[in-house]
Amino acid sequence: MAARTIDFTASSAPHAATKTVEKPAVDTKTKTQRPWNVIVHDDPVSLMNYVTRVFIDVFGYPQTKAHKLMMEVHTAGKSVVWTGAREQAETYVSRLQSFHLLATLEQVGD
Amino acid sequence: MYVVVHQDGTRWLRQATPLCVDTVQRLFEWIDSDDPKVKKRLHPDTFSDPAEEVAWRRLVSADLEHLVASRRELVEKDLARIKADGPGLSRFPISKTHQHAWLSALNAARLALFELHGFGPEHMDTEPEDIDDDERRLALVRIHIMGFMQELILERGEGGERRGRA
């Protein structure tokens, strides 16, 4: 995978000249540490059984979980089907796209 | 058309009509379309950030193209084994190890035809007979044929046969 730039602007250090003590942000992780969501969006063409099968084959999910996620895609329009490290998320999304599912990546908290 | 699953897991699609055979032989014609809507659907954006998207395409496009090309070879190997199967009908195999390639190619071709003919979600529940335009009606029939083929592949039986209309 390509080298990624690190965003150092997310520091939560309080300003030294201020008298009030600010609490650090609840999420103290830098942007690069936050996990990524693999999101699958609904499309009117891909068959439900097909989408379920792709979830089973790509993620190794059991049938029940794969079916539940497929139904979420179908009824809600999209579903977060996996969350974790960027590199693995990229692998998953490229595999989903190789089956022509509408899959995107989104960093948690964005 | 119906499917017979052999002991080695190969699915033989039997008594396929000329329209079915013509449809599978033209899969890559539609997938390779230069139509911008088809290209956009088969190669959708992954990131909302344009800079990320450019980097992503640079990173994965070669690998994805390689994967799609290798899957195409597998489908074409099976298509090269089309044989006569009764008067005016044909049979062809879908090898067990080629199932992913077939599923992916069929889905891509369905999506491509959907875009090429300007269909919307409502058309997927429309009977082809209700579409006035001949070309669009035929495209919708082809989409349904390919969907039926996907269902036949997705069934996990190790032997036996299933019959259906296509």
How much of the residues of chain B is beta strand, in percent?
5-15%
User: N-to-C SSE series of chain A?
Assistant: EHHEHE
Side by side, the strands of the main sheet of chain B go 3-4-2-1-5
Number of strands of chain A: 3
The gross shape of chain A turns out to be: globular
Terminal-residue CA separation of chain B: 6 Å
Instruction: Report the total helices of chain A.
Output: 3
Spell out the blueprint of helices and strands.
The complex is a heterodimer of chains A (about 110) and B (about 170).
Chain A: E1 36-41, H1 48-59, H2 63-76, E2 78-84, H3 86-98, E3 102-107
Antiparallel strand pairs in A: 1-2, 1-3
Chain B: E1 2-5, E2 11-16, H1 18-25, H2 27-31, H3 36-42, H4 50-79, E3 83-84, E4 90-94, H5 99-116, H6 134-154, E5 160-163
Antiparallel strand pairs in B: 1-2, 1-5, 2-4, 3-4
List keywords for this structure.
heterodimer, A: 110 residues, alpha+beta, three-stranded antiparallel beta sheet, 3 helices, 35% helix, disordered N terminus, B: 166 residues, five-stranded antiparallel beta sheet, 5 strands, 54% helix, globular
